[in-house]
Amino acid sequence: MTAYLIKNVSLVGGAPTDLLIRDGVVAETGADLTAPDATVTDGTGLVALPGLVDLHTHLREPGREDAETVESGSRAAALGGYTAVCAMANTSPVADTAGVVEQVWRLGREAGLVDVQPIGAVTVGLAGERLAELGAMADSAARVRIFSDDGHCVADPKLMRRALEYVKAFDGVIAQHAEEPRLTEGAQMHEGEVSTRLGLTGWPAVAEEAIIARDVLLAEHVGSRLHICHVSTAGSVEVLRHAKARGVKVTAEVTPHHLLLTDDRAETYDPVYKVNPPLRTATDVAALRAALAEGVIDIIATDHAPHAVEDKECEWAYARPGMLGLETALSIALDVLGPQWDLIAERMSRAPARIAGLEGHGVGPAPGVPANLTLVDPAARRTIEPAELASRSRNTPYARMTLPGRIVATFLRGEPTVLDGKAVK
User: Between 3.30.110.70, 2.30.40.10, 3.90.780.10, 3.30.450.20, what CATH number should domain 3-48+367-423 receive?
Assistant: First the structure.
């Protein structure tokens, strides 16, 4: 295993120092380090962060390899500074058995670019009718600890309660896609002034807020862990704030696109802006940013949702919802939060690693810890060109936008997956 000596790098925004990686761990940090056998990199102006962790990634394999594979999604993740991603269950077949989650887990190990941790489905076939094999998935080689029907809400309160009770036995987490389906039938975008003007059926904020309110009460009653996916409204923030003040074991995520983009993008009728939950108002965006800084929202998660060309380049009403996110998330965080490196490390690495229970991730860079880290050039700016992305899909809402920051290198247990901004394999 090659040793790497990074000179004059800032550790999570601190004063410049040297960092030595050897045998898969951070061996030493300090001034004027030497290591004759190490590959030396000039880290002047760069910031070293613990490798990013994404709690919400769609890798599409098995079943939709035309949109993404575990390998291509892993490469996109590494180029985005990630060392671990949690792969959602809405594949084909659905990841609702030990066999399917183990398949995804093994594909991730074979790719070797990031640690791929499968998320298991809560219900069989995401149908919301009966619980999937939660215990078998938890006991499998993949050791699943997060379960979600993302893309579908677990709408039945009795079933949701049973799921929360079941996973409590092994400290699991139910990650809810908060959407009351009876309030969103035929919805095309956020319900509000823009939807009224465009004549598109609206997705009301209360459809999200009502499910979150119900589920935090259920989680409090059961004493189990609940995670809320892609929070998008100011009202949801207030429900979460109240729940956390009561001591409910609830965590929440916000996506980069909900921190930056608003519902007026729908005026273009460009399906790249169609997403679930939909882009909301500027008031919602401001509330989400404040909640992220405050800690009411715990993490940034990408909801990386690649789609094949035919599923996006069509009429708005027929387009599949979702956006790419892995290769641009850190840039959006920098744009929204500025160079608050410790906050970025907490929201994009430490906290998601804690929620998912991913050992060796979300720590360091410090002597003795696994060398899962990313090097960022905060002074760089880059223009997003869809054709240059590693994902098999091209549905990025940031096409031709110039964003701050550039991932220079990513290390997974001391081995580079990205060097000089390019994937190593």
Answer: 2.30.40.10
